[in-house]
Amino acid sequence: MPDREADKPAERRETYRVLEDTHTLTGPRKSDPPLTVRRILVHSTTNAVGQQAARDKRLAKAAEDLNKLTAAAGGRHYKTREKIVARIGVIAAPVSPLVCAGASPITRTAPRSWPGTSTPAR
Q1: At residue 54, does pLDDT exceed 80?
Q2: Domain boundaries, the chain
Q3: Average pLDDT over residues 84-94
Q4: How far is residue 105 from each of residues 12, 48, 95, 99, 121, measured CA to CA in Å?
Q5: CA nearest to 117, candidates 83, 84, 73
Q6: What is each CA distance from 70 to 20, 54, 88, 92, in whole angstroms?
Q7: Mind listing the pLDDT tens digit for each residue in 27-53?
């Protein structure tokens, strides 16, 4: 055990989990011979903690950007639904949980006026 881990309680120590198996790859043509390779998956708790922190940071930034967009909707830069949807696409692109969760900016079926306008959104 490394010295940096010696003083930590067992549940806070870094752990690695390793899985190994074989996988057969086939080529695009029928004449391509199958290739069997060894596949190894390594999971590190330290990497997982860092990745979770990065996801939380991206989600917080996306939430902040969406709040700003909500306030700016109907203003000078975001007058139309298309511009708002395009901006949401830019915000959601690097944040896969928003995309995976099926967050859709336009889910209403009844017409509604955009903030700062008197015409219903179409």
Answers
A1: yes
A2: 15-22+36-100
A3: 84
A4: 40, 30, 15, 11, 13
A5: 73
A6: 48, 24, 10, 14
A7: 899 999 999 999 998 888 888 888 889
